[in-house]
Amino acid sequence: MALVLSKANWKDVAIKDEWFKFKDKTPNGYIPVLSVDGGELMDGTIALVRFVCQRHGLYSQNPREKYLIERWVDIIHSECRMTDEGLFEKGVDKIKWLKERSM
Question: What CA–CA distances, in Å, run from 78 to 24, 46, 60?
Answer without folding.
Answer: 28, 11, 22
